[in-house]
Amino acid sequence: MNVIRLCIQFVYRYFFDVTSDVLVYIIAWATFRANGFGGNIDRIDPGDYISFEVTTIFILVIGTFFSLVFHVFTPEASWNPSSEMLPNTIEEDEESLVVQPITMPSSTAEPEDLSLRISMAWRDWVTEPQFYYISLIYTSSRLVANMANIFMPVFLQESANVNQELITIIPLVMSLSGVAASILLKVFRKCASKKASMVIAIMIGFFACSIASVRPLSTYAIYLIAILFGLSSSILIILSLAFTADLIGYCTESSAFVYGSMSFWDKLTNGLVVVVIQELTEVGCDGDNCEIYYKRIVSIGIAVPLLFCLLGVIIISSIKLGRTKKIRSKLSASDETITTVNESSPVSSDSSEFLIATDSKMGYGAITRL
């Protein structure tokens, strides 16, 4: 139940994250339209610097305002670990106690779920294969979303040759599609598992990449690409965060290391990819003509992290997330202990229960009949 609640929180978190992106694009569109697109409606040029300055000022003012609202008006609840970790105390009267059958442990009994009591340190996560599988999925999902958001406007200007107004509208369409995906995902999850939903999102991304490789592109095709990329990237990010929550499980004492590590590799990978793509423009572009180059970036370039994401999902398809190597070893040790006790016990398996009559009195050495 806690994992489900956490997944719902991720959906709401991403919903407001994308909503903030939508606000940025609305401000940019309104600013460029008010300034007449720098006198050139067909392309973005240095004459549009005023529009970028105004957009930046608006974003800083709005962001600062809501940050102050959060820090001033958001109460911070105090947390008492002893009240949450200790079980409720149940006081019972001696007269209400009923003598129950005494059951000996048997070899068929399932061991206690030790995953609720086993802690994972950062050293344990470093040696855990599931940690790297989820890192691959999370980093690839972020790479798909960031590449689509970064290079889609460049693709529209260099490859699709659309006007400035459409360049400001298409990213807005992608963000709105992401908002719709975050809302509809809760309904969609009732019909499919998280892993199946991830595969569907990857297929949607592949379909968008295939459309982007076609030339020439109509306006309707460009809108379709934006919608598909928005749906795919949003679902991928939400589900990758849900996979991360499943991986952590109840080992929340080291969750900061898990999220921090994945965020670090995500930002490092995205930065390196963007730098490499920009450096390769000298090789991929024919002088100032980068039409084919950025078309390949949006089609083939985004398809590569989608493939890595699909590979990660295939790897974890038969794995129960959260059942780490440390937990499995503890459970195996518990199974061996129970088996040893059963084999060394003189009581046969047919006598695993002793029924004691309610009118019997138990002494130190014998059971006497009243």
TrEMBL record:
Keyword Cell membrane: no
Protein's GO biological process: carbohydrate transport
GO-annotated molecular function: symporter activity
Pfam family for this entry, one: MFS_1
Domain of life: Eukaryota
Keywords: Membrane, Transmembrane, Transmembrane helix
InterPro entries for this protein: MFS, MFS_2, MFS_trans_sf
Record keyword Transmembrane present: yes
Membrane-spanning ranges: 12-32, 52-73, 131-154, 166-185, 197-214, 220-244, 256-277, 297-319
Cellular compartments per GO CC: plasma membrane
Family (UniProt): Belongs to the major facilitator superfamily.
Name by which UniProt lists this protein: Major facilitator superfamily domain-containing protein 12
Lineage: Eukaryota, Metazoa, Ecdysozoa, Arthropoda, Crustacea
